[in-house]
From TrEMBL:
A single MF term (Gene Ontology): pyruvate dehydrogenase (acetyl-transferring) kinase activity
Residues annotated as domain Histidine kinase: 233-356
Compartment(s) where it occurs, according to its Swiss-Prot or TrEMBL record: Mitochondrion matrix
Gene: ga29029
Protein's recorded name: Protein-serine/threonine kinase
Organism ancestry: Eukaryota, Viridiplantae, Streptophyta, Embryophyta, Tracheophyta
Amino acid sequence: MASEPVARAVAEEIGRWGSMKQTGVSLRYMMEFGSRPTERNLLLSAQFLQRELPIRIARRALELECLPFGLSNKPAVLKVRDWYLDSFRDIRFFPEVRNRSDEHAFTQMIKMIKVRHNNVVPTMALGVQQLKKDLRNTRKVHRGFDEIDEFLDRFYMSRIGIRMLIGQHVALHDPNPEPGVIGLINTRLSPVQLAQIACEDARSICLREYGSAPDINIYGDPKFTFPYVASHLHLMLLELVKNSLRAVQERYMNSDRDVPPVRIIVADGEEDVTIKVSDEGGGIARSGLPRIFTYLYSTAKNPPELDGPNEGATMAGYGFGLPISRLYARYFGGDLQIISMEGYGTDAYLHLSRLGDSEEPLP
Ligand SMILES: Nc1ncnc2c1ncn2[C@@H]1O[C@H](COP(=O)(O)OP(=O)(O)OP(=O)(O)O)[C@@H](O)[C@H]1O
Ligand SMILES: [Mg+2]
C-alpha cells in the first residue's frame, strides 16, 4: 500500500504528464528508422519512449477515473487502472537512459509492461458487461452508452499505439531478423498468404465449435506484397472470417442445401490494398447495422469466459471483433466497412493504406 503523500505525488505526476502533447509516428517512419537498428538508434528510440510512453499512459489513467455510470468503480476497471498506474510509475522511476546498459534494462522493463497489459481488452469487456447487467432495467441508457463506446475507441486505439511502439522497439533487438522484417513490420507481406493462414485458424475454431466449417476461396496474386504488420492483419482477417463462417454455418447448419463458400478477394490499388470478405450468411438487418461497431452488441448466445488470455480464440462472444478490427485498420490510415444485404449476405471491405505515411491517430 502506497502511503498517502506518495499516492498524491503520483496523482500529480499523472496530471502533469497527461496534459503533455503526444507525438505520433507513421508506419513509414518506423520502417525507415528501424532499418538501421544501430546502438545509437536504439538509444534514441529508448529515450523517445521514456518520454512518450508516460504521456500516453497518463492520459488513459486519467480517463479511466472519470467514466460515466460508475464504470470507473467496477472491480475490473479498477484493475486495469492499477496496471496503468504501475506502468506509469515503472517508467517514471526508471533513471534517465544514457548508455547501452541503461537501454537494455529499459527494454526489459517495457517488455514486462507489455505483458502486464496483455489482458486489458477482456478485462475491460468484463467491466463493461458488469455495468450492462446493472443497467439492464433502466431504459434510458442508450445515449449514455455512446459515451462509453467513444471512450473505448480512444482507449483501445491508444493501446494499439503503445503496444506497437513497445513491440517495435523490443523487436528491433532481434539479432537475426528474418529477411524483409523490420521489428514488427514485414516489408514484403503477402496478404493472400496471410489470408490463407487466418482462414485455416478461423476454420479450425469453427470446426471445434460446430463440428464443420464452410469452405473459403481466396482470390488474388499470392506473389503480391506490401509493407504491413503481420500480426495486425492476421487479427483483422481472423475476426472478419470468423464472423462470416459463423453466419454461413448458422444459416446452413440444419439445411441440406449446398453450403456457399466464403470468398476473399485481395485487390492491390495504388493507394490502398483492399481485402473483401464476402459471405452468403444471410446478412445483418439494417436496424442492427448502426450497432455492429459498438462494444456491447453481439448476437452470440454464450459470451466466453472472460478470464483467460483467449483473445480471439472463440467464434463469437464479446461483440468486440468488429470495433477492434476497425481500430487496427485505422491505426495505419486504413478503414473497415460492412455492407449487408439482409436475407443474402455480408461484404466486409478492409482498406489498408499502402503509402504508410499517415500518422498514428492519437486520442
Ligand atoms: N458476416 C456477418 N454476417 C452476419 N452477421 C454479422 C457478420 N459480421 C458481424 N455480424 C453481426 O455483428 C455482430 C457483431 O460482430 P462482432 O464481430 O463485433 O462481435 P461478435 O462476433 O458477436 O463477437 P466477437 O467479439 O467474438 O467478435 C455479430 O454478433 C453478428 O450479429
Ligand atoms: Mg466477431
